[in-house]
Amino acid sequence: MSIPSADDEQQLPLLSNRFLYRLTGTIAVLAAFTALISLAGHWLGRELRAVGHTDSREMVAITIGRDRLVIPENEIRFARQRIEGSADSIDLYLSWPAMEGYTAASAQTFTNIEKSKDLIFLQISQATMSRDMSGRLEPIYRQLFEGQPEAGPDGLSLHHFKKASGYGNEVLLTSPNPNQPDYAVRCLLPDTPAAATSGDCQRDIAVGQDLSVLYRFSSARLADWRGLDKAVRDHVEAQLSGQ
To answer: Between β-strands 201-207 and 211-217, what pairing exists: parallel, antiparallel or unpaired?
Structure first.
């Protein structure tokens, strides 16, 4: 057997065709694997963002005290509550101003914290007090005010609580409400409008035979208080069954 000379070795290819074929195949497999990981990542990202949410409009019948409500699943905030039967309370979330539950089209409103100021959170339970927030204005809240009222957004009057009242830095905003009890809402107002959260204002209303509807919304939406209050009441009353 002849031994290759230095000249022969210089003429041999650095990489054999067989090795090139293997290398090309390996690169193709790695590229496909990378694409698969990327695709799975996008899918997993969508799934994680949608954890707890559903766009199902299947109706769920829930009885709270003496009231029966029929609610679409995509309005019920927590998956564990999307069960028919009796319950102590139910938590809903709705986009404003559409007053709709979670959908693929509105997903950003429900999953992006920067959009959460467009959400309204409701907790519906059996009433434990004889008066709702408007009914508590005269006998309770007015006894706890300190100083003169200030002008608030869209005709609201802003009242500060006494330090010993237990309400901390919260304020109460009120307004006459034609043909209805005066409007009242408690808020923990931010230092700047940009610092408003998705639920720094709350109000409770009486609905149905024996329901208390506590709803929370962003102080950025205080200028919409008339339409918002009516929309919440109308929405829950529309879900009452047989009443």
So the answer is: antiparallel
